Amino acid sequence: MSNRDKLAGEIDDPIVAGALKHFKASVNAWSEATYTEPRTGVRMARHNWRLAAIWALGCLLAAGSLAGGLYERHVRQESARIEIMKAAIRAAEQKAALERKAAEEPVAATTAGKRQPTAVKNAASADEDLLATVDNDVSRQVPAAMEPLAQMMDNSGTN
Amino acid sequence: MTVEAAKEIAAQDFASIVESHRPQIFRFLLASLRDADLAETLTQECFLKAHRNWNRFRGDSSAMTWLMRIAINLQKDHWRNRRLQFWRHTQANAIGVDEASDWLPNGERNAEQQILAREQVAQVWKAVEGLSERQRTVFLLRYVEDRELSEIARATRLSEGTVKAHLSRALARVRAELRGTR
To answer: In whole angstroms, what is the distance from residue A120 CA to residue A103 CA?
Structure first.
């Protein structure tokens, strides 16, 4: 350091000058000791390895998150689709049941309406048949002693 | 002179420059970064760049100044990149101020003087740590590399006045640290 370059107070302060001298000597000693040390580029390799590991981990996490998100979305979509289908099936079943019910009610009403007169008619004809049979039987069972009277009544009836 | 012969001379020149200036460049980077491995890497990069641009070196300044400028730019790039890095691994590899101040030449001093010297070195390191990047560069070029102000100005592409201002502030900080006023 030339005198021309001296800064005010740079050298005049013995404490600062001494400290700077020690500092320079210290850096020199450190540099000389470190400079002569054999170096094989381990640090760079270690850094590369670390960086690669960090990047790999980061990529893995990102890919995992993405895949997880996609899978979750897919599952949700699928379950939503299934729910919709179930609801549609239920609705269709309900609709079919309602339609069946609606279709069955008029038939039942008609059948009931038709069945009642027939039954009445059948019952009436059965009564008439029964009465006719009874009449026939009764008429056949008139005792022989009463026969002239019966004939006379028939004659008077026809007259 | 054939082109091959000129190239050979240039290569020999460059080899001699590497041999003579490599330790100084390494020392400057080591003091700037406090990381021996990184200093070694940047020293290699510095000479690689210098070799690539050796043909363009016009000799306006000394080879040392030119190399120092490359080293300063590399160091700047490193700090700039480090600021952008998510993983600040450099800080983890740089040694602490206390560890850096352990290095002292084996002189004839007694134990007491050695302890005092170590304390002073630690205080200077502490002050250096608090300097801005530019102040630190100027300070180290001046008080470790013994460069003249004009050389420092050329290497840092600053005016001599600015260099003086940076040095003055850096010295004030060192002085304050030594007096324990900071």
So the answer is: 27
This prediction's pTM: 0.58
Domain count across chain B: 2
Cβ neighbours of B144 in A, within 8 Å: 23-24, 27-28
- The Cα–Cα gap between A136 and A99 comes to 55
- Same structural domain for residues B145 and B180? yes
pLDDT, tens only, B51-93: 888 877 776 778 889 899 999 999 888 877 766 555 455 555 6
Both B64 and B142 in one domain: the answer is: no
- Residues of chain A in contact with residue B37, where contact means CB-CB under 8 angstroms, are 39, 42-44
Same domain as B82, residue B16: yes
Domain enclosing residue B106, as ranges: 96-182
Note the residue count of chain B.
182
Residues B58 and B126 both lie in one domain? no
pLDDT in tens, A23-78: 999 999 888 888 877 655 444 445 567 778 888 899 999 999 999 999 999 999 99
Is B146 in contact with A1 (Cβ distance < 8 A)? yes
Rounded distance between C-alpha atoms, residue B148 and residue A78, angstroms? 77
